[in-house]
Amino acid sequence: MKIAMVMTAGESAAMGHWLATASLADAELERWIIDGEAEVAQQLLEALVARWRQTPVDMLIFPAGTLGDELATRLAWRLQGGSVCQVLAVNTPEGRVTKPHWGNALIATLKVAARPLCLSLARQPGVHTSIDLPVEMTTRHIAPAALPDWLISVESVEPTGAHPLLEAKHVLVVGQGGEGVDADHIAALAHGLGAEAGYSRARVMNGGYDAERLIGISGHLLAPDVCIVAGASGAAALMAGVRDSRFIVAVNRDASAPVFTQADVGIVDDWPAVLEALTACADT
């Protein structure tokens, strides 16, 4: 099977990390590099169709994100193939792909036979190490076309720097439990532990908390060295944001909370008192 990994030069490390964990058997891999920036998907579709007709492949893999989803869907239609968006893994010998389903509560396995198969990857947690793609991969270049005539104007939004949570090696994630503890207190506890603070959706929706620090399927996906999950039951949508942590500590006064089944260490107690004790230890 021939597979093309379509990306910009800046996405090489993320794609390399996914490839290192993928199981593509004896697939023949190519790297299709998009040269320059495209404002809209239309600028890339004709070039991708032309490239595929010159050097056809069985599968095209696009990076995570809205552009990858759009390209995978629209290119599959143009090539009369198939598409699956937000894929976690690919099993080429069996022709199966897996992807999250029902808000990440389930993992679906799909049998796909259409060719070419156009896939976009699921959003993955940030990693602290980068993995380059194999140097022996055949590299082909895709040049975006000019903006289409129907496009009147484009407004560019300057990207901001990475959020501190994405780079943190120690994270404190606080759920809805312990309502009497406010954002300032949580920030002080996190600071005392040398960690960045994040919140469950339930706590953010109650107001008074930074929505940019939302953790879970609709927020940040993290992979810190240590993650403390405090006052959270362990709902799938939240735990999707921290499941790739190297070490998880759960603190909850409910001994039957599902979060304990996903933690390396569990502490049954009121989490504010436990964290106050931990910060006291850290200060000594």
UniProtKB/TrEMBL annotation:
KW Cell inner membrane (keyword) present: no
Record domain Electron transfer flavoprotein alpha/beta-subunit N-terminal: where: 39-121
Signal peptide coordinates: none
Keywords in alphabetical order: Electron transport, FAD, Flavoprotein, Transport
Domain named Electron transfer flavoprotein alpha subunit C-terminal: residues: 165-243
Origin: domain of life: Bacteria
Annotated Gene3D superfamilies: HUPs, TPP-binding domain
Molecular-function GO term, any one: flavin adenine dinucleotide binding
Alphabetical GO biological process terms: fatty acid beta-oxidation using acyl-CoA dehydrogenase
Family classification: Belongs to the ETF alpha-subunit/FixB family.
Name this polypeptide is given: Electron transfer flavoprotein subunit alpha/FixB family protein
